[in-house]
Design goal:
heterodimer, A: 546 residues, MetI-like fold, 77% helix, globular, B: 358 residues, alpha+beta, Rossmann fold, OB fold (Dihydrolipoamide Acetyltransferase, E2P), six-stranded mixed β-sheet, five-stranded antiparallel β-sheet, 8 helices
Chain lengths: 546, 358
Amino acid sequence: MQAALYALPVLFLTIFYLYPLLAILRVSFGASLAEAMEQVSAALRSPGFWRVLWFTTWQATVSTLLTVLVGLPLAGVFARFDFPGRGLMAALLTVPFVMPTVVVAPAFLALIGRNGLLNAWLQRLFHLDAPPIQLEQTIWLILLVHVFYNVAIVIRTVGGFWSTLPPTLAEAAAALGASPRRRFWTVTAPLLAPSLVAAGLLVFLFCFTSFGVILILGGLRFATLEVEIYRQAVSYFNLPMAAFLSIVQLVFTFTIMALYTRVQARLSRTLRLRRRAFARRPASWRQWAVVGLALAATWIGVLSPLLALAVRSFTLGDGGPTLLYYQMLGENLRQSAFFAPPITAVRNSLVYALATLAISLPLGVIAGYALTQPRSRWAAILDPLLLLPLGTSAVTLGFGYIVAMGPLRVSPWLPPVAHSLIALPFVVRTFLPALRALDRRLREAASTLGADPFRRWWTIDAPLLLRALLIGAAFAFAISLGEFGATLLIARPDRPTMPMVIYRALGQPGLMNYGQALAMSTILMVITAVSILLIERFRLPQGEEF
Amino acid sequence: MLEVRAIHKRFAPDKEVLQGVSLTVEPQEILCLLGPSGCGKSTLLRIIAGLERADQGQVLLHGSDITETPTHRRSVGLMFQDYALFPHLNVAENIAYGLRMQGVSVAERRRRVEEMLALVNLEGYANRSVDDLSGGEQQRVALARTLAPNPTLLLLDEPVANLDRLLREELLEALRRILKHLQVTTIFVTHDQEEAFALADRIAVMRAGRLEQVDAPAALYRRPANTFVAAFLGFRNLLPILEWRDAYTVCTPIGAFSLPVPSAARSATGFRLLIPPDAAVLDSAPSSATYVPLVGRVIDATFRGSVFRLQVALKENEKDDNVLYFEFRTRGREVLPAQGEPVQLWLDVAQLCVVQEG
């Protein structure tokens, strides 16, 4: 009975993850070895392939370096100082991590795009004819959004580790004659290096597989592997090329994932040794100034694009306030790109998100229990299997479904299945630590007090694990709502989700379409923000690393 | 050599941890800052090291004011309670760190590391990882690291607090041997009076941000300045004084005693009579004239190895003021006095002293 239950997540991952991936391999390499060689050499000879690979790599590298550059000082402030608003700052940093790309990309356009809020203000203030900020369709805007997305990873990972370094280490170095600068370079920096590498690898991975940001902000000029897979599969219907690109990307992402898990394992080992955090109140006005600056930068950096989006969605062009964009969502324009009033997408998205919860939560709980079984066969299979989807891009997954699922590929169940697969590792990662932290003696005490196994679970496990489960649920919900890459490939056009509506509206000309995108983005942002509030409300105080 | 002048430090408006502390440390002296936790002793040490800023007052080293000098230019060695060994460096690299900061050549560094390892009895440990060391070994590496750059002044913050009892005694002896051998001026902080006695040339007892008494260990033990110091050193027999019959004779709840020397304190309030636990002998009367007889009843007897302790009630009711605590040598005694048994004591009045309340 138990074994059958534990087999469920393995079965799910096999059918909906491994099988589609194998299908991509088959498409890429064809039926015979000769055919495979030919396919590969043809792909390698095309200049497009090398251009895309080069762009993908360098933009990810630059994005990572910039993110570290911005994140490291903030991590230091976060680790070393205890100040009012510290908890709120931590909560705020979850926002970019969970916000969908279809919200963030339009949000940055609304803030610093050609017709963005900032340009409008500057033009009015200095009576300029042309918008002074010209970042639209440039690499700079893409890099900026990548920093926005990933800086929280650096702050959480490095800052969390930094806060456990005893301050006596730097003080000992001072007493031994090291100046502040040498203290940083000889003591703090070497000790932070592993956490910095872990954070850097994760940021690199996310930027390497960046999809929505590039698709929306890059136009036709920029394409990562991920975007190119989508274009080859959907626009040119060149399935072998798309499959080949997917394989190349998988090789890269799995390598990075493998490196990341190794560094991460070493980090959590050292972290376990020292659980204490050493944050102190700022002691001088100079330290207060540094803290204030960091706080202001975080608040402005995170909130200004999102607020600009909301403001823009209620403003008619350059004119006054309006609700028109929201009213338009309920109408099915004849020349519009939609089959149904866009507002139905809200309902579709919510239904998909609930279905995702219904699939991913039970599977996540079962997987969590299976993983905590000592010497379980299923645990040995599940552990690496659960990590793989984290390193697999959404577009690859969606593409896999297209080539593998046959008639099922138009099923309305496929999007929630894909969303569940993407959400499952997150659910397990929030649920598992709580399960592991559950003291075995509590259960033993309950047993000696006469609780049968079920009552023991209901009275001991369930209340203690509920918190972790709620966080996992909120994550899964938010992930499903914002999922873009896989959905774009597998959702039926007559049942669009909110991200699809936003993307399509952004691609259409005219103020009304743009306005609808803004309005829909704002709705999605608000729903996601509620999920984030839930996550932060239930987050356990110890959870400093994400 | 080191002079601390009227140091004040406040962590919060209502939390003044140092209230005007002044102190002088002589060259080659080992001075101990002794006091209960929260008395400000570690803060004073951190101010001397430059890790904390004083609100008022000065720190002078060799006569020059270093109050504003940053830590890394002070040439003071500081050893932390948690040792603060650098986990990314091995034993030799830890010890060489201070020399590296001074720009000492690689060859000289290597020689000095060997010298330090020999000094702390850790030859052959150079390439060990600091994570693989036992608590005692870590402590010795930390000491070697602190001593390697030849600091003018050595500061030790609870240097053996994290070790178990046996190891602590052993390392205290080694520490005193090393410090005296190197003739390095040392201030060390502890809350344990036994550690202070074992290591210090002079002890400065602190309480709530003030110095209560600065004295050599033996003098401190014989003449504690007040009841706080006495209680902190472990004295329990502090009897209230009812009246003075004359300059020699003091009346207490358990009777009158004639002191061998006249007391300057003639007021009954504000003073107590201190009876050291080893001031009495049991049963047979000693020949000396300073012994007076006392009769009591055993309330409790505990065996402590070379000594045993008796709680003795000197009157029928067992109020605190009527109970004294004594220690006697175990040698030559098969059976301890049993609870409730009457005992005959002889008290040496030459060892009694009058202590100010405070």
